[in-house]
Amino acid sequence: MNNLLQHPTNSFRPDGDRAGDYRKALGQFPTGVTIVTCMSQIGPLGITVNSFTSVSLDPALIVWCPTKNSSRYHAFMRAKSFAVHVMPVEAKELCIAFAKSGQAFEQASWSVNDQQVPLLDGCLARFECRYFADYDGGDHSLLLGLVERVSVFDGVPLTYIQGSYNSAG
User: Fold this and answer.
1) Distance separating alpha carbons of residues 63 and 104, to the nearest angstrom
2) What angle do CA 23, 125, 34 make, to 5 degrees?
3) Which of 166, 164, 163 lies closest to 20 in space, CA to CA?
4) Secondary element (H or E) of residue 26
5) 7 CB-contact burial (10 Å; exposed 0-12 / middle 13-18 / buried 19+)
6) Domain coordinates of the chain in residue numbers?
7) pTM (two decimals)
8) Which residues contact 164 (CB under 8 A, 6 or more apart)?
9) How far apart are CA 58 and CA 77, in angstroms?
10) Are residues 81 and 75 in contact, defined by beta-carbon separation less than 8 angstroms?
11) In this predicted model, what pLDDT tens digit does every residue of 108-155 receive, in sequence order?
12) Residue 107 neighbours by CB under 8 Å, 6+ apart
């Protein structure tokens, strides 16, 4: 209980000159790791994302937040359908590959659904979504998906904390 009386080791306003410190503070919160996929004008496209969460149970809505400076941003913002894959600890290298290149599909086993959205095998959960809405979020957008199909598998989730991938279990 003494932690409740703890004083911060660093306290600051999260303005431009402290952006790195702000990012580091956000990294104290562990997140799951996902790969979001869609079909684009250049073919299947993927991106590693940790800004993903549920929004609503009724209707079933999720949100993820693509950064506006990504070369993949416009393709995902134009996609009518996409899939969010919650990744297991064994998929760390695949997540790193999709963080670097949107065309890392040669490293994965995958297929397409009826909407031609790439579906990755080997995930823990998959949310097949239709575009619902998007909102401005500063240097990111908030992209809401209406979940049309969910698939769940067994395994241990991959997490991201303090700037590193980590197993959750």
Assistant:
1) 23
2) 25
3) 163
4) helix 19-26
5) exposed
6) 17-153
7) 0.90
8) none
9) 23
10) no
11) 999 999 999 999 999 999 999 999 999 999 999 999 999 999 999 999
12) 93, 94, 97
The mean of the pLDDT values for the chain is: 92
Is residue 95 within 8 A of residue 31, CB to CB? The reply is no
Burial of 61 (0-12, 13-18, 19+ CB in 10 A): middle
* CA pair distance 122, 108, nearest whole angstrom: 9
User: What DSSP string runs through 59-84?
Assistant: TTEEEE--BTTSTTHHHHHH-SEEEE
Question: Tokens 């416009």 map to which residue?
Answer: 74
* Calpha distance 159→86 (Å, rounded): 10
End-to-end CA distance of the chain: give it in Å, rounded: 25
Q: Which has the closest alpha carbon to 166: 92, 62, 115?
A: 92
Per-residue tokens: 154? 């067994």
Q: Which amino acid is at 169?
A: G
H helices of 58-146, in order, are 73-78, 92-100
Return the CATH superfamily for domain 17-153. Electron Transport, Fmn-binding Protein; Chain A (2.30.110.10)
